[in-house]
């Protein structure tokens, strides 16, 4: 149920912040009819009208799928329940398997199950990922022969930047990787950009063939490989529209179109994505160049949403989203939080101690950050950070200075291979007005340091130094990370506070 509520929060954020049309995935795994009603009522209240209904995978720790008491035995039952109780409020889609569902004994049996789902009220079918237009065409023909006449949208996978990851994804979904695709990617060796581009070209051809054969659209399993999906949509001259919608009916995103050509992006807003998007909606810039990294430990701990390791340093497409990146960090139960941060902090020093112990590795996470970054651990700044926290400068984000590190560097590298990374040191923190006064007084003897401070009421105090070392007031972005071979620069996240 927790994952269902998290999904609703994510979808609501996507609708409210990004003006996107969204689809909720709803499986039968572990939910009772009451739990289903709770989620469906929340979806109605949020005006979420599209649902992909799935049976789902076995519950964590189980090898076989089992229904729960007063739950649903399969997707057909859930489709029928939604349709009879909620009428036509929701558009319902179901999954089809061109290569048959792994639990079915034959393709014929699988088609009968699919026909039953459609007969119970599904509006259209989305297929499991398929790599061949001929396989999709054969599947559509088989569906038509047994009386399934609703639209069937092919699911297509954006190829991850390594053959190993592709095999892992397909193995998880019980889908075979075509031999010709394997051979193609093997010729790319370990060059991840070549693998991604070769996979993109391969899937673009598949998409074109599917559309030419009459596919009503494409359902892209992106793996958050935004670049590949965007290139295919652009190259095939596709439009992301709902059925029956005209260009003029599509709501514009809350950020202006020129942001697509941005050159400067905030670098660290994994913990506060909604705030970033809303606070910067009037900027001439778009999404951040670095978001939260996915942690496969969650999968090992029982969270079976399929997640992937982030791409190594030096990869251009290091934009992978965790399942909770839009709606905030999962901080644990009340008991877990008390265990981490103390039963009842009663003094400022008690709070200082929590932050200091996080930096020293004795507290696992804070509401603003769930880990120390690799570059923080490797740069030798942990001791100064601990000292700052001890004296009431409560750090939540920092960056060490870097002068010309290779873009492939394990700790500091980013962007295309062959580049060099330059970083200004910065620090983001909470502090009291008294500590701020002491800091501003000390800045007089350090003319190269800039500072911006904001209070809860929006009040601002600023000491700014330009590239010539001159003190001034400015609203321009202060670039603190760049790579000569990359197209994106990163300003200080402190600057975002100006847009409150």
Can you walk through the features of this model?
This protein is of the alpha/beta class. The protein has a domain at 323-490. Helices cover 34% and strands 14% of the residues. The chain contains 16 helices and 15 strands. The chain has helices at 2-18, 33-45, 75-86, 107-119, 133-145, 163-172, 179-186, 192-212, 226-235, 273-279, 297-300, 334-341, 348-359, 374-378, 382-390, 433-442, and strands at 24-27, 50-54, 91-96, 124-129, 152-157, 219-221, 394-399, 402-406, 420-423, 426-430, 451-454, 460-465, 471-472, 479-482, 490-491. A six-stranded parallel sheet has the order 1-2-3-4-5-6. Helix 5 (133-145) runs parallel beside helix 8 (192-212) and helix 7 (179-186) packs antiparallel against helix 8. The radius of gyration is 25 Å and the shape is globular.
What overall form do the CA principal axes indicate? globular
Distance between the termini: 34 Å
Low-confidence stretches: 241-329, 485-500
Q: Say how many strands there are.
A: 15
Structural class: alpha/beta
Nearest-integer average pLDDT: 76
Major sheet:
6 strands, parallel
In what range is the share of β-strand residues?
A: 5-15%
Instruction: State the helical fraction.
Output: 25-40%
Number of helices: 16
- Tell me the radius of gyration: 25 Å
Give the assembly state of these chains. single chain
Spatial arrangement of strands, main beta sheet? 1-2-3-4-5-6
GO molecular function, one term: FAD binding
Domain MTHFR SAM-binding regulatory: 258-457
Keywords: FAD, Flavoprotein, Oxidoreductase
InterPro entries: FAD-linked_oxidoreductase-like, Mehydrof_redctse-like, MTHFR_C
């Amino acid at each position: 149920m927790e994952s269902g509520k998290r999904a609703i929060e994510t979808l609501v954020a996507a609708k409210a912040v990004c003006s996107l049309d969204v689809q909720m995935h709803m499986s039968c795994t572990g939910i009772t009819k009451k739990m289903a009603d709770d989620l469906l009522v929340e979806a109605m209240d949020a005006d979420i009208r599209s649902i992909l209904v799935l049976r789902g995978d076995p519950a964590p720790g189980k090898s076989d799928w089992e229904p729960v008491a007063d739950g649903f035995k399969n997707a057909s039952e859930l489709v029928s329940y939604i349709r009879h109780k909620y009428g036509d409020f929701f558009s319902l889609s179901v999954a089809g398997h061109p290569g048959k569902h792994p639990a079915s004994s034959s393709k014929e049996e699988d088609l009968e199950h699919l026909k039953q789902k459609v007969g119970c009220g599904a509006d259209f079918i989305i297929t499991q990922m398929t790599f061949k237009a001929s396989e999709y065409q054969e599947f559509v023909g088989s569906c038509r022969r047994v009386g399934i006449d609703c639209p069937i949208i092919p699911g297509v996978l954006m190829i991850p930047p390594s053959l190993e990851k592709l095999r892992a994804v397909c193995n998880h979904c019980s889908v075979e990787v075509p031999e010709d695709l394997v051979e193609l990617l093997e010729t790319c060796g370990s060059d991840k950009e070549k693998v991604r581009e070769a996979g993109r070209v391969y899937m673009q051809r598949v998409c074109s063939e599917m559309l030419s054969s009459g596919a009503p659209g494409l359902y892209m399993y992106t793996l958050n490989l935004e670049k590949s999906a965007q290139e295919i949509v652009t190259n095939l001259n596709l439009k992301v529209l709902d059925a029956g919608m005209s260009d003029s009916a599509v709501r514009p995103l809350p950020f202006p179109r020129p942001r697509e050509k941005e050159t400067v992006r905030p670098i660290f807003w994994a913990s506060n994505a909604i705030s970033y998007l809303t606070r910067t909606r009037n900027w001439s810039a778009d999404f951040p160049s670095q978001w939260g990294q996915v942690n496969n430990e969650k999968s090992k701990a029982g969270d079976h949403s399929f997640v992937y390791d982030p791409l190594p340093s030096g990869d251009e497409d290091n934009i992978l989203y965790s399942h909770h990146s839009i709606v905030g960090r999962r901080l644990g139960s009340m008991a877990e939080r008390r265990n981490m941060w103390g039963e009842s902090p009663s003094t400022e020093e008690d709070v200082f101690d929590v932050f200091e112990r996080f930096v020293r590795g004795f507290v696992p996470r804070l509401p603003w950050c769930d880990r120390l970054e690799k570059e923080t651990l490797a740069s030798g700044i942990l001791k100064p950070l601990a000292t700052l926290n001890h004296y009431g400068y409560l750090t939540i984000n920092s960056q060490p200075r870097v002068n010309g590190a290779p873009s492939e560097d394990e700790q500091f590298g980013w962007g295309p291979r062959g580049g060099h990374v330059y970083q200004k040191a910065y620090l983001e923190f909470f502090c009291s007005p008294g500590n701020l006064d002491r800091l501003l007084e000390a800045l007089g003897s350090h003319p190269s340091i800039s500072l911006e401070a904001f209070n809860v009421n929006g009040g601002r105090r600023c000491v700014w130094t330009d590239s010539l070392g001159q003190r001034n007031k400015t609203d321009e972005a202060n670039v603190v990370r760049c790579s000569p071979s990359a197209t994106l620069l990163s300003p200080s996240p402190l600057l975002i506070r100006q847009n409150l």
